[in-house]
Structure to design on (360 residues):
């Protein structure tokens, strides 16, 4: 047990190396931009003030969202998804998978579950000993089941899921803005140092290296940020993008998609004034998620008609009303002809009655 505990502590310590590396790069970029560029290199005071104000705004938002992404604990399933003590003991003792599934089916009777495994059985985590809610997955790095798990990010040493996915998106957004602003404002002085228009000072190395680092991070972050924006628009996680969730009616990669606007609201919330702030505003509780109305659950009572049925019924009622209006209008225009029509129809009905009695 002791070597295992020591190994676990070493792994947890090594996991912070990427975060420490990012923190050191950010601290150096702050010094290089504020001190070496703005104070020692830029001659115009007005330009210095503008650059310093915009830089600090992007820097504060970047650090704030990065901090929230790192230190927000991943949300895990509640106790209602854990088996009772007797059921857990019975599940552990049982060796037959069929009987184990019967135990899980009984335990999951009153739980809001709509997804299954690829084999169509209840999703259960043997490590955490809980029934997995929809979109929940086990993270081996965090050693826990995470609600609406997206992925485990080594650059934040945390699992990105329901509790911090918005913070992660904002972290990518503000880090991209941070790098773009640095690269755009440093470019002219990068060229001047490269063409020897400015004297060789200790600031030259910082400015040249600052541009290369900002451009490099900008390219890598842009691709990742674009990909996650696409996921938000589709209301998918990274796991669901590679493996579509399986519902009771089958696999459906768009099973949780509610439309572009509602998909954004699922992550950022309804109040747009909080969208750009690293404050938790995501909708839901991380356990239940609205699914598309196209996927009708056969085990759930039907709440409303299908859109096609509604349209057909509305069309039939409209056709009947138009036909009645047309007949009334025709009668008003030609009352004699309408009377003849009624007489002919009555005679036809009487003839049909006589034919029927004759056949009998």
């Amino acid at each position: 047990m002791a070597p295992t505990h020591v190994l676990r502590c070493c792994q947890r310590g090594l996991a912070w190396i990427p975060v420490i590396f990012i923190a050191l790069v950010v601290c150096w970029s702050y010094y290089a931009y504020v001190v070496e560029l703005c104070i020692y290199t830029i001659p115009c005071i007005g330009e210095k003030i503008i650059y310093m104000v915009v830089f600090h705004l992007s820097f504060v938002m970047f650090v704030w969202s990065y901090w929230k992404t790192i230190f927000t604990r991943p949300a895990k399933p509640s106790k209602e998804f854990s088996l009772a003590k007797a059921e857990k003991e019975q599940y552990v003792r049982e060796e037959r998978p069929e009987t184990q599934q019967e135990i899980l089916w009984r335990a999951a009777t009153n739980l809001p579950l709509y997804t299954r495994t690829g084999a169509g059985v209840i999703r259960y985590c043997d490590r955490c000993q809980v029934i997995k809610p929809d979109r929940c997955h086990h993270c081996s790095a965090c050693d826990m089941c995470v609600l609406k798990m997206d992925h485990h990010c080594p650059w934040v040493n945390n699992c990105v899921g329901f509790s911090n996915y918005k913070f992660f998106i904002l972290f990518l957004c503000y880090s991209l803005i941070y790098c773009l602003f640095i690269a755009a404002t440093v470019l002219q002085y990068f060229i001047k140092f490269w063409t020897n228009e400015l004297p060789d000072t200790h600031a030259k190395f910082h400015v040249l290296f600052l541009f290369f680092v900002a451009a490099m991070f900008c390219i890598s972050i842009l691709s990742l940020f674009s990909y996650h924006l696409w996921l938000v628009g589709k209301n998918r996680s990274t796991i669901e993008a590679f493996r579509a969730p399986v519902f009771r009616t089958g696999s459906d990669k768009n099973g949780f998609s509610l439309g572009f606007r509602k998909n954004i609201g699922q992550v950022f919330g309804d109040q747009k004034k909080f969208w750009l702030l690293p404050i938790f505003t995501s909708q839901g509780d991380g356990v239940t998620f609205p699914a598309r109305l196209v996927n009708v659950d056969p085990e759930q009572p039907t709440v409303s008609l299908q859109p096609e049925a509604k349209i057909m019924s509305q069309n039939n009622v409209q056709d009947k009303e138009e036909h009645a209006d047309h007949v009334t209008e025709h009668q008003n225009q030609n009352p004699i002809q309408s009377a003849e029509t009624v007489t002919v129809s009555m005679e036809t009905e009487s003839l049909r009655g006589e034919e029927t009695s004759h056949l009998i």
